[in-house]
Amino acid sequence: MHWLLWAALLDLSLALAALFSRRAGYYRRLAHFALCAAVASTAGIVAAPVLWARGLRASGNWVVARTFYYTTRVLLGIRVELEGEDILHRARPCVLVGNHQTMLDLVMLGRVFPMQTVILAKKAVSYYPLVGWFMRLADDIFISRGSKQSASSMFQRASAELRAKRVSVWFFAEGTRGRFSDGPGLLPFKVGAFLLAYHARVPVVPVVTMDFHNLYDRRRFWSTSGTLKVKILEPVLLDGLGEDDLKPLMNRTRETMLAELKRISPPRIAH
Fold first, then answer.
1. What sections of the chain are H helices per DSSP?
2. Burial of 167 (0-12, 13-18, 19+ CB in 10 A)
């Protein structure tokens, strides 16, 4: 129990320091974020046997997501305002694609992530403590692309696993975090999500999260509470398309998401 006392004293010290230092407040919120992640991962591990017994193994991600969202809502004060949630239920199974900005995207995922949805991740992630453990228990799909393996054949194999499990899958379409100093934006999309949807014969469902700038800016040690707007767009159907049609469709989807991102994002404030 001594570690709980030390943790409480550290939190109190950072709270007092935050009255005079933005950086101290930032690191206090970062510590709260890490605590929420640890609690959520543990909840996923504990819930796994029950979910397995009910045939809902892939819903371990949902347990982790909702646990994380409600703990961060209390400790970080960030509430997600979600529009279009009904689309998540009527479009399953599907490939969900979202824009990627900061580590706080996990708060959005905590509120949005549907039941029976998995994450497609690099195989190395499966070995991470806590995170990798619950992802294995939740039946997430791990891929390892060899130097001679094409992207198409890799996602074709992943789609077979997706169809067999009858689950949806989440992608960050840009492949990495997009940071833009002049306003909300999107990096070019990777074609992987669309290849997976094409081979699995399921729709793509775009998920747009507003610009994080007013809530979080790591470079300026800025982190605050507030409301995060998220919009689920109508499914993008791939019926009748060939593999050569995927990149034009991907680019049109990106333009639609970018327009929606600009619409739902508030004007940036100076930190």
1. 2-18, 22-53, 60-75, 85-90, 105-112, 131-137, 151-165, 192-200, 246-264
2. buried
Helices (H) and strands (E) in the chain, counts: 9, 9
Question: Dihedral of CA 88/93/99/102: which sign?
Answer: positive
- Alpha carbon distance 87, 71 (integer Å): 26
**pTM of structure:** 0.89
Q: What is the pLDDT of residues 111-153, one digit of tens each?
A: 999 998 888 777 777 777 767 777 777 777 777 655 445 566 6
Cα dihedral 104, 106, 109, 110, rounded to 10, equals: -110
Instruction: Collapse the DSSP code of 256 into the 3-class scheme (helix H, G, I; strand E, B; otherwise coil) and give the result.
Output: helix
> pLDDT digit string (tens) for 84-93?
999 988 888 8
Helix (H) or strand (E) holding 168: strand 168-172
